[in-house]
Write a structure and sequence with these properties.
With 207 residues, this protein is α/β, with parallel strands linked by helices. The chain has 8 helices and 5 strands, in the order βαβααβααβααβα. The chain has a single domain, classed as Rossmann fold (3-Layer(aba) Sandwich). α2 packs antiparallel against α3. The termini are close together. The structure holds thymidine-5'-phosphate (TMP). Thymidine-5'-phosphate binds next to α4.
Length: 207
């Protein structure tokens, strides 16, 4: 059986994660891999409820918000991600621990504790590859109110962007920073290349 592979997409809101995720899942499926596409928050039935609570409630205390993301993550990793990886699937996931580090730890000012909480929640599961879709924030899009969480200013969006770039710089082997301000096909070409490299590395580790 092929080794499982855990690929995560990160980046600010509106950088095209869903499109790239879908393109990668399709390509891997066509190549005969078993693929599980999932997301945080909201990758389980419990997670859907937690997502609703986080996104559409009134003010949520930042620590409570961080714990809701962590609760979603703990349940999701234990019941979806780890079993899929154990079965040899490629898990293609929209957001993971880095989103909490950047949004709750950085932007909401909760600091390093947030990373510790997420590491505990996941029992230390790291992605084989994190694709950071990188793009300069678009002020127009950012001011279009979508929901509470997405009501971000351009300055805030730039802080988020720098947060992801900083995490990628910390561990370049496990990250691919991809310029997302291009045609989806061009972006995907880089995403696919990075996935193949990660796949080869994972196979070498498993053998
Ligand atoms: P999405 O629309 O890309 O699924 O993300 C929903 C929002 O949730 C997005 O603005 C980022 C935010 N988020 C956090 O603040 N912390 C987290 O840990 C995760 C997973 C998402």
């Amino acid at each position: 059986m092929s080794a499982g592979l855990f690929v995560v997409f990160e980046g600010g809101d509106g950088v095209g994660k869903s499109t790239q995720l879908r393109m990668l899942a399709d390509a891997l499926g066509t190549a005969g891999r078993k693929v599980v596409v999932t997301r945080e928050p909201g990758g389980t039935a419990l997670g859907v409820e937690l997502r609703q609570a986080i996104m559409h409630g009134d003010h949520v205390d930042p620590r409570a918000e961080a714990l809701l993301y962590a609760a979603d993550r703990a349940h999701h990793v234990a019941t979806v991600v780890r079993p899929a990886l154990a079965a040899g699937a490629v898990v293609v996931q929209d957001r993971y621990v880095d989103s909490s580090i950047v949004y709750q730890g950085g932007a909401r000012g909760l600091g390093g504790e947030v990373e510790r909480i997420s590491r505990w929640a996941t029992d230390g599961l790291l992605p084989d590859l994190t694709v950071v879709l990188d793009m300069e924030p678009d002020p127009e899009r950012m001011s279009r109110d979508l929901d509470r969480v997405e009501r971000e200013t351009a300055a805030h969006a730039e802080m988020i962007r720098q947060g992801f770039l900083g995490l990628a710089a910390r561990d370049p082997e496990r990250y691919a920073i991809v310029d997302a301000a291009r045609e989806p096909g061009q972006v995907f070409s880089d995403v696919f290349k990075a996935t193949r490299v990660a796949m080869t590395r994972a196979k070498e580790r498993a053998s």
